Amino acid sequence: MHPQPLANLRILLGVSGGIAAYKACELVRRLRDAGAQVRVVLTANAARFVSALTFQALSANAVRSGLWDESAEAAMGHIELARWAQHIVIAPASADVIARLAHGIADDLLTTLCLASSAPLAIAPAMNLRMWEHAATQANIATLRARAAVVLGPADGPMAEPESGPGRLLEPVQIVAALAALQGPGPLAGLRVLVSAGPTCEDIDPVRFIGNRSSGRMGFAIAQAAVAQGASAHLVAGPVHLPTPAGVTREDVRSAEQMRAAVLRQIPHCDIFISAAAVGDYRPLALAPHKLKKSGKALALRLTENPDIVAEVAALKNKPFVVGFAAETRDVERHARAKLERKRLDLVAANRVGDGAGFDATDNELTLIWHGGKQALPRADKIDLAHALLERVVALRLPKTKVRRR
Ligand code: C5P
């Protein structure tokens, strides 16, 4: 299973009354670790077991419980919340909630949301074993299953009361694994993505170099998103201070020439190359063996041009799908389109840099440009942009979607 199997999935978690409600707290954590966005709705009974504040802190979102909560309705109305949800998960689901759902009753916020949403529904029942085995509950479960609801559990084992049997809530990790399995393989399943990231450093002498302000965050986010979408991902990173995203392999380099060598070594093993690195255009003609001393006069550094890595890859006969970045300070689209043509790229992700935008920030704004189309991606976290960028890559690759075999 890849590390973020629920990346960006918007999950509405309904928590109903029962002692197992405390386990829903850990479930929120696990869902978020798996990449999901979570909004929690408590039934009135659930709120007696665990406070809304706990869920609010864990989900990093406001928690709803009543239909008539005016301030919450003003922030996100219940119909909007129903539309927001891509998946509804009810854990724990009490016998009472199961009964109300089965009969289409909408007498509180959670059941109203379930009726108002077309998102798939998964329920993880938790109740006393006799309540679970009761013919009424079993009939309600059958009704929900017939409507394509997925029933997760319940597990067998000791209960809060001194008896044992079916009725225990599944463990949060099991619920997350089941939800991940429901998502199917990611859109990039089976593909190999190579990403270059970060700046390059071109040494002048043993202590000085020419660098740039790239943090590497965009490239690292792309590698992370690629893995979340089912690909295998390899990063060739210039000098950055970022942890390697889980599931990604990484090779560190320093100069443009080292980056070129590392990228060209990997190209035969990749289907998609995303050149997010801010490769230095020039390097000193010669590396001074010792620290340069002040001479009291102006110093002229002779620079020579670096190889253009992405253009070289795009010119290969058996080239992967090639994505370049274009960081511009003005006239973004025009320059980006020129870059698309000149470097023979399949897609360019363009952004405006300078004035604190783009480099070294956690969010960004991109325009995707390809032959015959463009798409503006409004300001968002780099991980969200990375997912959107990869979705576009998948769409553009579709007509020639065969995985290259060597
Ligand atoms: O020409 P410019 O530097 O604006 O192009 C940016 C794109 O080209 C980026 O995708 C960058 O990674 C790539 N590039 C490269 N090698 C260079 C310069 C830029 O691969 N020497």
Task: Describe the overall structure.
The protein folds into 2 domains: 10-182, Rossmann fold, CATH 3.40.50.1950; 192-400, CoaB-like (Rossmann fold, 3-Layer(aba) Sandwich), CATH 3.40.50.10300. The chain is 34% helix and 24% strand. It has helices at 21-33, 46-49, 52-59, 70-75, 78-84, 95-102, 109-116, 129-133, 135-146, 172-183, 217-228, 256-266, 309-314, 332-342, 382-397, and strands at residues 10-15, 37-42, 87-93, 121-125, 150-151, 155-158, 164-168, 192-197, 202-203, 209-210, 232-237, 248-252, 272-275, 282-284, 303-305, 321-328, 347-352, 363-370, 373-381. A hairpin with a 5-residue loop joins strand 6 and strand 7. Residues 401-406 have low confidence and may be disordered. Cytidine-5'-monophosphate (C5P) binds at residues 196, 256, 275, 277, 279, 281, 306, 308-310, 324-326, 339. Cytidine-5'-monophosphate (C5P) binds next to helix 13 and strand 16.
